[in-house]
Amino acid sequence: MRLASASLDMPTAGDYAYDWALIDVETSGLVARRDRVLSVAVVTIGQDGEQTGEFSTLLDPGCDPGPVHVHGLTAERLRGAPTFDQVAGQIGSLLQNRVLVAHNAQFDYDFLAHEFARARMWLPVSQRLCTLALNRQVDPPTDDMKLGTLAAHYGVPQTRAHDALDDTRVLAGILRASLCEAARLDLPLPLVACPPRAESQFTPNPPKTPCAYRNPGRLTPGEPLRQGMKIAITGETAHARAELVGRAVAAGLNMVTSVSRHTSALVTNQSSDSAKARRAASEGVPVIDEHTFLRMLADVRAGTAHEATAAAVATVPLKAPATPQTRVAESHPGSVPGSVPGSAPVPVAVPVPVPRQAVSPVGALGDPLSGHRVLVLGGVHAAAVAARTRVVELGGSAAVNLSASVTDVVLLASGERDRRMSRITALELPVHDEHWLTAPTAAAPGSATARTREPHVMPRGGVIDLPMPHGTPAPEWYVTAGWSPRAGCEIDVVAFILDEDEQVTSDEDFVFYGAPESPAGTVRLLTGGPAEQTIALDLASMPPATRKVVVAAAIDGAATFGTVGAIQIGAAAGSSGSPIARATLDAATTERTVLLAEIYRRGPLWRLRAVGQGYDHGLDALARGYGVSIAD
Question: Is the pLDDT confidence value at 322 over 60?
Fold first, then answer.
C-alpha cells in the first residue's frame, strides 16, 4: 500500500531530506530489558517522500503478552507467529542506511536493541528521529503530544490505535506535517546518533535494597552502631566483602560506596592511601577495623524509620506555595546563591517567587504579556537575562528557540544579525526593541496558537506541587531540558538521587550518559536530540529513603553556559504530555555546571523547584559533592 500522505508537500531537500524507516512496536510491558516485542511494523520512505517498502508481523514472545486491554494481542492471536530472531534479518534490511523514526523513539529503539541483542545481532541504526521531540521543538497548539492528538491536529486519519501497522501509517503523516513545520520555522532536526550497543552494556545492575532507617550521624567512640548509620569499607578484608555487606545490611545499616561528611564510620584493616581513607581523614570520619566492626554488628541498636510517602492521595491541583513569599529555605544545594553541593546547609530566609497560575491566551489576569511567548535575540548576557526576566514579570513566557508558539520577538544589540531573523521576517512575527518591555502594547495572541491550558510560568526559585492522581496509577514525570543548539557545545543532563543528607546512597544513584538508568528503573535519562534531554521519574516507586532528585546540566570542554545562553525546563506528566510548568533559566555565565531543578518530598506530595544555580567547576566536582566516587 502506498502512503499518499507521506509524499505530499514533504521537504525533500537540504537538511530535511533523508531515507526514513518509520517503525512502531507493541510490547508486553514498558521495560525493554525485561519485556518483549509482540508486533512490529516498518514503513520506509525515500528522500523524495515516496513510500519504498512496508513490513509488519505479529511475534511470538515466548511469555505472557501483558496488557491485552491496551494492545489487543492475546496469547491465542500470537500463537504460531514467528519469533523475533526469525524476522530480525528482514527488519534489519529495512532499517539499514535509514534514519529510524518513531513516536517516543527511544522506547522503540531500546526494545529493538534488546531484541536484536537476544538474537545475537546488531541493530543496524546509526541515527534516529523522535517525532515527539520534533514536535516539542515545533510546539504546536495541542493540549498534549500523543499520536492521536497530533494526528487530529495535522489532519491525519487514524483507524486503529495501538495497531502497529496503522500507527506507523499515521506516523508517516505526522512526520510529513512535522517536517513541513520544521522547515517553515527553519528548525534543525533533533537527530540522535545511535552507536552500536550490546545488551550487556546497557542492562542496569540489580537494584540495591534501600535502607529503611534515617542516618543517626557519626559513630561515637565507645557507643554501639545504630540502624541507618552509613558505613563504607576500603582495603583488603579477611571476610569476603559481599559477606560483610550482607551482614551489615541485614542488621539495618546503610552500606555506601563512598565517603562524605555524612558517613558514620569507615571500616579498614590498615592504614590506607585510598581515596576513601583520605576523604575520611579530611572529614574526621571515625575509622574502625574489621574485627571491631564484626563485634559491633552483634549489638546494633534500633534506628528511626524513614517516613513513607502516601501511596495515593487525592488529586492536588497545581498551585503556588502558601504565602508569605518569604520562607525558610529547605536545606538543598542551590537554595543559597553560591552554595556548593556537599557543604553545610545554611538555614537562611530567602525569597521564593510565587509561580504564576495558568492563564488563558487572552490575558485573564490582566498582565500585558499574558499568553505571549517572547523570543529575545542579541544583547550581552546580562541584558538578555534582564529582558527575559522582564517578560516573565509581565506575565509572559520566555522562549529559547523559534517555534510555532512564539508570538513576539525582542531585538537587543546585534539581534538583527541572528540567523533566525530572516525566518522571523518571513513569518511576519511582531518584532520590538528593548524599550517595548518597559510598557508593552501587545495584541492578544491569535486563536490559532490557543491551548486549553497554558503551562505555568515559573521564575527562578519557583516551586509547584506535582499533582498526584487518586485511584489511578501515578504517571511518570518527565523533566525536559532544552536549549538553543550551539556548534562545539556538548551538554549532558544528569540526575542525582539523594537521601536526607543530600547524598547518594551508592554510585548507581548518579544517572548520566554512561549509566542512563538507576538500578531500580525509577530515574532514567532520555535523549531527544542534540539540544534536548529528559529525566523521567517514577515518583510512586521511589523508596522512602529517597528524599530528592536533583537534575543538573554539565558542559564538556572549555565552553561555558554563557555561550549556550538560557536553558528551558518543562515538567510533564507522561512522555506525551504537554508541560504543566515551564521555566527559562539564565543563571550561568562562566559556569560549566548548572543545577536546573529539584524534585523533592514535602509530606505526602512531591514538589518541583526551578533552581538555576551555576558553578564554575565541572561535572566531576559536582558529583563528588553529592557523594559519588569519582577517580582522581
Answer: no
